Amino acid sequence: MGHSSVRGEGTRRRGPHARDLGWDDSLYGEETGRVPGARTAPDDEENAGGIRDAAAEGSGSHRRGTPRRRGKRGKRRILRGIALTVSVVILGTAGAGYLYYEHLNNNIRKGERTSADSDVKKSAPNAAGQTPLNVLLIGSDSRNSSENLELGGSKKSVGAPPLADVQMLLHVSADRKNASVVSVPRDTKVDIPECTDPKTGDKHAATRDLINATLGRGGPGCTLATWQELTGVYIDHWMMVDFAGVVDMADAIGGAEVCVNHNVYDGPKPNVPGGSGLRLTKGTHEIQGVKALQWLRTRHAFESDFGRSKAQHMYMNSVIRKLKEQNAFTDGGRLMDLAETATSSLQVSEEIGTVKKLFDLGMTLKDVPTDRIAMLTMPRIPDPANPKNHVLPAPGEADRLWEMLRDDVPVDGKAPTSKPKTPAAPKDPAAAPADIGIMVRNGTGADGPPTPQRATTVAGLLVQQGFTGAQADSTPDPQKRTQVLFPSADLQGDAQAVAKALGVPTSAVKRSTDVSGVTLVVGADWRTGDTFPKSEPAAGPPKNTETVMGDDEDACMDIYAPYRF
Question: How far is Cα 234 from Cα 257, in angstroms, rounded to an integer?
Answer without folding.
Answer: 33
